[in-house]
Amino acid sequence: xxxxxxxxxxxxxxxxxxxxxxxxxxxxxxxxxxxxxxxxxxxxxxxxxxxxxxxxxxxxxxxxxxxxxxxxxxxxxxxxxxxxxxxxxxxxxxxxxxxxxxxxxxxxxxxxxxxxxxxxxxxxxxxxxxxxxxxxxxxxxxxxxxxxxxxxxxxxxxxxxxxxxxxxxxxxxxxxxxxxxxxxxxxxxxxxxxxxxxxxxxxxxxxxxxxxxxxxxxxxxxxxxxxxxxxxxxxxxxxxxxxxxxxxxxxxxxxxxxxxxxxxxxxxxxxxxxxxxxxxxxxxxxxxxxxxxxxxxxxxxxxxxxxxxxxxxxxxxxxxxxxxxxxxxxxxxxxxxxxxxxxxxxxxxxxxxxxxxxxxxxxxxxxxxxxxxxxxxxxxxxxxxxxxxxxxxxxxxxxxxxxxxxxxxxxxxxxxxxxxxxxxxxxxxxxxxxxxxxxxxxxxxxxxxxxxxxxxxxxxxxxxxxxxxxxxxxxxxxxxxxxxxxxxxxxxxxxxxxxxxxxxxxxxxxxxxxxxxxxxxxxxxxxxxxxxxxxxxxxxxxxxxx
Length: 546
Ligand code: ATP
Ligand code: MG
Hints:
By secondary structure, the chain is an alpha/beta fold. Helices cover 26% and strands 25% of the residues. The strands form seven sheets. A seven-stranded mixed sheet has the order 12-25-26-27-23-24-13, with helices on one face.
């Protein structure tokens, strides 16, 4: 199912070596989302890596929700994340896992650390913990509670568990080294108090393990061999290994890091995406301008195009900003082969063919795809009153041939040669109608070809033209993200499609000739009012790009 990665990455080399040393071990990876928002295309990279490896090495890949923060973990996100992963074409092995399935075991490991004098309950306030931790240039200071006895710590931890302390008053910390050059190793927090209701364990617990404590233990319990994460967890690896060394657990997973995906004009962070929704810049997580998987899907991206994109990325250890054109070219290449061609007029102007009778109608048979006749054909109708694109006509034009103008001849695609001879104007001097006549083709002449629709056979539709959501290439690097919002990221236009296009949730992607690729918006469209989302232009650097 997964397109095999043509390049062998450093992770594949690590796994190849692992297999030589551990002939009997099954390769086991996992995808560990925090259920605090929708998945984005950065997660697609992580999914691709983990699932590609499990498939290549005949191993397994677990889906495990890292649900250690009841404040922002929600069931609605869990359902959407599962749906999005399936949509991308990935199937996790066995049942869905949750870090919360291991809360009891994680708790017991905390007790083990207390009993080994490797953890203590700290009564310092949050701010003091931060102050005592020091900085990159100054070492940390030991908490005055660091040397409590095992009994004192046991009693305090019990009381934490029983809910006898308010949130934030005490926490369990690992006793490692406040002087460590690695700040994460300066007595990191292992457990904190939270009275929020957990989506799975409800009110069973009021203490929750931190990500660092829960993650490595969950990996170990599940027999994960290669725990793959992004580079920002590089420092956390020391803690990961420290926990693994100091608790009694048979399996010892190893963490490896790779570069996070960043794409031009996108923010790939659930937290930042959530800010856009909170600030009402975007209404929903599935807005077609967002890089969320549900947004990309609604925009018309296919799962195979996204998987192809991930395959092309490879796995490296160097963070970089991927050009948006490399994502766009994946969908453009695919749609070029699969999308039915048809004509639509997005900014219409009416033309009247004067030298044919009022009721004249002519059926014209055209192929759905010029190079793939297996995709079938359809009939379009030519008649007296037509729509053409406003920009295909210009009253006063210097450079002839490029457009229809008075006295100028153009070819209507799949149809006749016409010449414009007069126009009717509105009060505001804008053009109301253009009067044309059909001509006999002059074989020696070159004609500009324009597209058109029969007015009688056209249905009014909305076209949503999208642009980058941000005015800067690397919005994630900006402190004030919201000052870089492009207020022209969505432009709504009202034009016409051929009536034969009916609302159909299966066959819903089209190439509107000369305009680009469009998809019917399945959420907003109705049978009577079809709304199209522009997927992508026909060529790179289209006129509407900023
Ligand atoms: P976000 O900031 O979007 O919430 P996260 O890392 O906190 O990202 P998780 O839900 O914890 O999100 O991520 C699940 C997995 O996806 C992790 O292994 C994480 O490293 C990986 N991941 C997240 N974002 C990216 C990205 N941009 N590129 C590659 N992998 C990513
Ligand atoms: Mg996270």
